[in-house]
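Feature request, filed as a ticket because there's no other form

It would be nice if the structure record came with a short human-readable summary line next to the tokens. Right now we just get the raw output. Example of a typical job, pasted below so the devs can see what we mean:
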Amino acid sequence: MRAGRILVIDDNEDLAVGLSEVLELNGYEVDVILTGRDGVRAAGNKAYDVIFIDVGLTDINGVDCAQRIRKGGSGARILLMTGYSAKNIPAITTEWNELELLSKPFDPVTVLERIGWPSIGNSSNKKPVL
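Raw output as currently delivered:
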């Protein structure tokens, strides 16, 4: 069974690399992209199981990025990451109800739980590597 494929789109390189390292240690194949536009292109060129997108990207906002990815045909599970209050994020619960929010700061266990670890690419008898 292949490892789950994950795309991390965040202009904060330290956070993106840190998140990717935790995910890779737990058996996932991870690509890191630092801009929304490049993230949309990456999602169009490769099938991902999960995509993490920062809401506060500098080139396009994360909600727009997610919408473009979805319109491009990606069926990936999308988690929007934000350090802001959820009430400050545009209403996405109707047309885009498949988007999920993950509040920053987050701990590695929370991230793994949110993506259903160990359901993608890992056996259920393993413990997370942190």
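Something like this underneath would help us a lot:
The CA atoms of residues 34 and 58 lie 9 Å apart.
The first strand starts at residue 5 and ends at 9.
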